[in-house]
Give the backbone structure.
Amino acid sequence: MKIAVLPGDGIGPEIVAQAVKVMEALRSEGLQIEMEYAHIGGAGYDAAGDPLPEATLKLAQESDAVLLGAVGGYQYDNLPRPQRPEQGLLRIRKVLNLFANLRPAMVYPELVSASSLKPELVSGLDILILRELTGDIYFGQPRGIRTLENGERQGFDTMHYSESEIRRVAHVGFQSAMKRSKKLCSVDKANVLDTSMFWREIVTEVGKEYPEVELSHMYVDNAAMQLVRAPKQFDVILTGNIFGDILSDEASMLTGSIGMLPSASLDANNKGLYEPCHGSAPDIAGKNIANPLATILSVAMMMRYTFAREDIAQRIENAVRKTLQQGYRTGDIAEAGMAKIGTAEMGDAVVAAL
Ligand code: IPM
Ligand code: MG
């Protein structure tokens, strides 16, 4: 297992260090894991003047999987767009063709009361948001800021989805639904956007190949509302890049903390980039208070999807569950009166449980 480790910025290095502890524990049992580090995001800019340095891209291309922490920091906010940390992440997703972004949101029984919703609404929740990751308004051209004939300046972006882009992610959606409860909800804005109208047409067509899957469609505004009204009505949610960006942050809060949510971004051959859904949280960086569980759970997803080691994936997930059962909490998931532990201590607790 050749794994590129890209800690990135903010809390990235400290949370990735905990996931590395887990991989080292697995390696000490004989699993053949090889890890190599490289810079991305602001760290890439600092080291090589580029948020995705050539050496990092090469390492990622030569590896079976990539483990990423997070990118972004205040000190980079005023750089020209191509040098901004986020561009490193967007480019690595695009160049590696990681079009299928899996963001599972599940509620651990121990954390039910950490959710901002009533326990009965979220208890037992287990949904999968499948977000298309390499198309849509994120990458559409042309884009920019232009001056109109009347002299007024205007910002503009382009939303588009080609048929092949929709088809391939729709297949992943239906296949995921087949492995779960055979329900797929495709989220779009077909009442307003032509891109969405086309998305709906193609998803419906692909759905004919999966007669066992119950396909439904929902407008994104309604989906945003339903996610906080009755989230358990969903199983797999299939959606485009920008809607998925927004809905997955919303879904994370159902689970109590965005610090719990892992993600996998896969290409057509299950090569993948694994990262927590949360960002670099520069305000708490270096304080040993960030929650490393999303990153550790991302390693579980890596074992499941890239390496087809469901056994190891479940061991890691069970270790996380056990750690929570034992009462270990970082600040973001601690209830009033509970003892809090630090990032490194949480990593150690998971390794011990493993
Ligand atoms: C995410 C993040 C990224 C995105 C940013 C950091 C570019 O919000 O992974 O959801 O918008 O995709
Ligand atoms: Mg986001």
About this structure: The chain has two domains: 1-99+267-354, 101-258. The chain has a mean pLDDT of 96. The chain is about 40% helix and 20% strand. The longest strand covers residues 2-8.
